[in-house]
Design a protein that fits this description.
It contains 11 helices and 9 strands. It is an alpha/beta fold and 343 residues long. The chain has 2 domains: 174 residues, Rossmann fold (3-Layer(aba) Sandwich), CATH 3.40.50.1400; 138 residues, 3-Layer(aba) Sandwich (Rossmann fold), CATH 3.40.50. The strands form 2 sheets. It has a 5-stranded mixed sheet, sandwiched between helices. α9 packs parallel to α10. The protein is globular, with a radius of gyration of 20 Å. The two termini are 35 Å apart.
């Protein structure tokens, strides 16, 4: 299978204070989130001048990808400019007939995979019959480079701890929590199982036998059950156990989203400091050259054929392959979200 281009498909984020509330309204449209809650979340972005790190990181990653492939690389978002619908129209105008699509989520499940498939379907429908064929690349949570990048990040984070605390530091993996009802939508707890499996692979590669998997950044009504334990609650438990140092690895994120730089680098860091716990946060892949090589490797798996590159571990968890023009990653994962209104 040959490609004319690559589309990097991401979540999007504001790039100025005046964009924060419109962006959050895009993200939450139709969900009945109170205005007060949006204003509270907006303060997280305004703490950083109203600029999410994600767009800048994605542009830097695109530069790295362009350095290791001859394919033209396009950039489209779900919730903010450049919108994926506009990007696919530009691709059509530039004569692109078939493009690989790399989403900035390594995971399966609805939010991690199927919602990006909906983005592809919506963008192609907006462009019409002349839209290029869009082939979403496979889930990559068990790719050797994904595992290696996080393992190296853990080692680097551990090295920043006081030397006398390193041996006893507790390794804690974090990923974005989701409602339990959503967790079971695309197969039995697929997202949760993939996160736990990837954490096992990364911990082993970094030389750790013991680790914890926790969840962060939950929102919504308190009566709705989400994946637990929450990272802050878990830190309290570790403090009670006498743990003096923690390495937090945000394995659920491939870049420094606001959930990483606010929820971990600010809120969790303040909690740890107050409890007298040394906290080291492992970096995400961001715009590493190895991440770009991972992307090109996924494309080559389709171009050249052969077995996908995966790290083998005990009791492997399914990771689903590529799909064309918004076809869903797994038969169990059906679309439910309405198309995002144009803005």
């Amino acid at each position: 299978m040959e490609f004319d281009a690559l589309l990097l498909l991401s979540f999007g984020g504001p790039e100025g204070p005046e964009q924060v509330m419109p962006f959050l309204e895009n993200v939450t449209r139709g969900r009945g989130i109170p205005r007060e809650r949006l204003e509270a979340v907006a303060e997280h972005y305004l703490h950083f001048g109203g600029v999410s790190p994600i767009n800048g990181i994605n542009r830097a990653l695109i530069e790295q990808i362009e350095a290791v492939t001859d394919l033209p690389v396009y950039f489209g978002n779900r919730n903010w400019e450049p919108y994926v619908e506009d990007t696919v129209a530009t691709m059509r105008d530039n004569g692109v007939r078939r493009a690989a699509v790399f989403s900035t989520s390594a995971w399966g499940g609805y939010s991690g995979c199927a919602q990006y498939q909906e983005d592809i379907t919506r963008a192609r429908a907006a462009v019409g019959e002349s839209a290029p064929e869009l082939v979403k690349l496979r889930q990559y949570f068990d790719h050797p480079l994904f595992v290696r990048m996080f393992a190296d990040a853990i080692s680097d984070a551990a090295a920043t701890l006081p030397e006398d605390l390193r041996a006893g530091a507790r390794l804690v993996f974090t990923a974005h929590s989701i409602p339990l009802r959503a967790a079971s939508r695309c197969g039995t707890d697929l997202y949760e199982r993939q996160v736990r499996y990837a954490s096992q692979l990364v911990a082993a590669a970094a030389g750790y036998q013991d680790f914890d998997v926790v969840w962060q950044s939950r929102s919504g009504p308190p009566q709705v059950p989400w994946l637990e334990p929450d990272v802050g609650d878990h830190l309290e438990i570790l403090v009670g156990q006498g743990i003096k140092a923690v390495i937090a690895c945000p394995i659920g994120f491939v870049a420094d989203h606001i959930e990483v730089v606010w929820d971990l680098d600010n809120e969790l860091a303040e909690q740890a400091e107050a409890a007298g716990v040394a906290l080291a946060r492992a970096s995400t892949p961001n715009a590493q050259r190895r991440f770009a090589e991972l992307v090109v490797g996924l494309i080559d798996e389709l171009r050249l054929g052969g077995e996908p590159a995966r790290v083998a571990g005990p009791q492997p968890v399914p990771g689903y392959g590529s799909s064309v023009d918004g076809a869903f990653c797994t038969p169990a994962c059906e679309p439910v979200s309405a198309p995002r209104p144009s803005t």
